Amino acid sequence: MRETITVEKEVKWWQTAVVYQIYPRSFQDSDGDGIGDLRGIINRIDYLKYLGITAIWLSPVYKSPNDDNGYDISDYQDIMDEFGTMEDMEELITKANDAGIKMIMDLVVNHTSDEHKWFIEARKSRDNEYRDYYIWRDPVDGGAPNGLTSTFSGSAWELDEASGQYFLHLFSKRQPDLNWENEKVRQEIYDMMNFWLDKGVGGFRMDVIDLVGKIPDQEITGNGPKLHDYLQEMNQTTFGSHDVLTVGETWGATPEIAKLYSDPKRKELSMVFQFEHVSLDQQEGKEKWDLKPLRVADLKRVLVKWQTSLGDEGWNSLFWNNHDLPRIVSRWGNDQQFHDQSAKMFAVLLHMMKGTPYIYQGEEIGMTNYPVTTIDEVEDIESVNMYHDRLANGYAVEDIIASINAKGRDNARTPIQWDDSDNAGFTIGTPWLHVNPNYKQINVKHNLENKDSIFHTYRRLIQLRQHNPIIVWGDFELIEHTPEDVFAYYRKYDGQRWLIVANISSQKNEFSVDEEVTEIIISNYNRQEIVVKSVTLKPYEIFAVRV
């Protein structure tokens, strides 16, 4: 007889969680000023509870002049006026906790706003006590200290005329980088994190955290040599004694680097966001604006690598969308002819994988990109800067606009489409950003009424994850030798085997594997019977079956 030994896992709540990202400016306006706010989120907690999510990642709501929509923070321990008050924030944390939903705060500690009191002081003189909170360098040959560039175009160095020195900004010139080599800076940040932990938050999403170990004089930005020392110090000083989720935004992570962040033995973070799949539709070695078609073979290769290479030494974050990325149904799906089918396909494909899934607001109803025709319609600073930079470099206007329509961040930031009333039920005022005109057809109200909707597919996927350990813990095995656009894999756990088959294409495809289906778990075409020994897959079809 074969003896079966069950190894007890130390299960963390975030390993079985599904996280929902809220971009507060665009979620729900409660006071008619056209800007989403904390009261609007409070009023929608029942909706999120019904969806079934177990945590909210809340994009920044701290005090900010809004140069980069809240990612430029002027006071970490106060709330932006247009979002509400600290009392509103405390009520939101309490109401969410009561609904079984933990609040994950977006933490931006690579840089602050130039209106933060530290930077205001730092600018006063070279010998000010806050000067060393930021990164200052003398000119070199009458110009910038070196060739570091900003993510938002141009040099990463800005001359401070009063002192004659340059300060570093890897993003907007109104987002000066903090000097993490200064122990006082680190302690200020840790004290601030403990302020929020004492208020009962469920963790932190750490914006561009891989940049805090930078060595600017050597033009090293990501994954600097002291990065992991800082994260271990942060863990020990702040959240390490709390049962919370911590996820780092790490654009340069490989699986080996991801293990450094998320191996439990190292006591750093719970998990990271890696972005290898996000760059698959841009030209090699160029910027995200330089487009190329997605090859499904590349997508399979990258996702499989991240499913199989972390083992028990790391934990995966699963996502298609966030506030910086275009909508997946428009990007790699078909948001016209096969809108519902492709939206559901991407949902099932992702949620059947190992890791913690993230849903970005509106993804659960299949919200789409909103194409613009002129730069005057664009709000996002990154897109606007790129437009003027490329225009000056001789690019054609129509090509620049095409890139913005494909990759611009406003695509993700149009207001949530709650119903088919004016402004999609987002506001009774004038919305801060245009509402997608397709809100009459694509909205929460219609999704809730239709039991076969994209929303109910997401709800079903969340329930499946909560009740089936195979999704959380099962091994992942790719099925080789399928048509290029077919992504098929097994999940295996405790004697069970599930087969997931996806056709990432507007064309039909043939698939066969020598298995007997014993149960259909979920299908976006509502098939009553599936014979996987020979099946013609419909456009964007996906199913998960027990074999």
UniProtKB/TrEMBL annotation:
Signal peptide: none annotated. One of its GO terms (biological process) is oligosaccharide catabolic process. InterPro entries: GH (IPR017853), GH13_cat_dom (IPR006047), Glyco_hydro_b (IPR013780), O16G_dom_2 (IPR045857), SusG-like_C (IPR056300). Pfam families: Alpha-amylase, SusG_C. One of its GO terms (molecular function) is alpha-amylase activity. Residues 21-413 form the Glycosyl hydrolase family 13 catalytic domain. It comes from the Bacteria. Keywords: Glycosidase, Hydrolase. Belongs to the glycosyl hydrolase 13 family. This is Alpha-glucosidase.
